Structures are given as C-alpha cells and as structure tokens.
C-alpha cells in the first residue's frame, strides 16, 4: 500500500500523533518546572536573608489588606448584579 493511499484513508492520524507527542512534552516540562519552583523559591529566600524576606513579607501583607477590600467590593457588586437580575426575572414571571 502506498503512503499516499494511507494518508487518504487516515488523513488526521499523523496530525493527531504529533499533537499528542507535543502535548506530552509540554506536560512533562510543566511538571518539571512546577516541582523545581518550591526549591528555587526556598533557595532565593535563603540567599536574600531573613531581613530582606521580612521587608518583602511586610509589603505583601500591606498589599493583601487592600486587595481583600478590592476583592470584596468586586464580589459584592457581582452578587448584587446577579441578585437584581434574578429579582427582575421573577417579577416578570409573576
């Protein structure tokens, strides 16, 4: 059987195989990166020292205080919009 005849019968087979091969390579590289990330972060923490880490932690803590408020407002407004939408739909039915 000629190769062109096989490609006519199964035109997407080779494309699917290459896609699976590339997906496997990407997945393995992501796994490798994700397992090295905590080790890298710990090494950076040791290299920077405790004083620098303490200053960084205080900045993140201050940022967290504001981000919690912003997130609360966003979720609150989203909930209000959803509630008003449901309330208007119920009133239309009744």
> What Rg is obtained from the alpha carbons, in whole angstroms?
27 Å
Distance between termini? 70 Å
Largest sheet: none
Strand content: under 5%
Shape: flat
The whole-number mean of residue pLDDT values reads 76
By helix and strand content, what is the structural category?
A: mainly alpha
Number of discrete helical segments: 2
The figure for the number of domains is 1
What are the segments in which pLDDT stays under 50 over at least 5 consecutive residues? none
Give me the count of strands: 0
Helix content: over 70%
Helices and strands, in order, run as HH
Structure described in brief:
With 94 residues, the protein is mostly helical.
